[in-house]
Inverse folding.
């Protein structure tokens, strides 16, 4: 599971590493720290303000930096992408029920997680898991 997260992080970071200048170095360092925090806390924390506070910057500045580094993704998008990856990994590699996964990832209930997952993947968690077995 960690390999998937590290691979995603590594690809994202490498993609933008080539365009370094003095200002960009600082932004890239903040982005790197942000992605590390997301990897650690995305199961419980989904708000940009939480990560901005940890980095001692404003949520608006964090969003600006993430958009600069990724060129099109917001900080919230990056948090959501990692959370969706986390859900996919749990659906693929565990025998936990969808309800247990929802509880583990701090969703209010299974239904909310199902709607959240479907919004980003186009499939419900149950449909996604069933498609893996095909």
């Amino acid at each position: 599971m960690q390999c998937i997260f590290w691979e995603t992080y590594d690809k994202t970071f490498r993609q933008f590493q080539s365009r370094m200048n003095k200002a960009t170095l600082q932004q890239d360092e903040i982005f790197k720290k942000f992605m590390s925090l997301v990897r650690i806390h995305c199961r419980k924390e989904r708000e940009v303000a939480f990560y901005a506070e940890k980095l001692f910057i404003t949520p608006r500045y964090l969003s600006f930096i993430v958009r600069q580094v990724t060129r099109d993704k917001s900080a919230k998008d990056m948090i959501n992408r990692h959370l969706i990856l986390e859900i996919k990994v749990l659906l693929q590699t565990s025998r936990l029920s969808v309800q247990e996964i929802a509880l583990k990832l701090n969703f209010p209930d299974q239904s909310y997680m199902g709607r959240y997952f479907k919004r980003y993947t186009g499939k419900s968690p149950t449909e996604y898991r069933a498609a893996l077995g095909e």
Q: What stands out?
A: The chain has a mean pLDDT of 88.
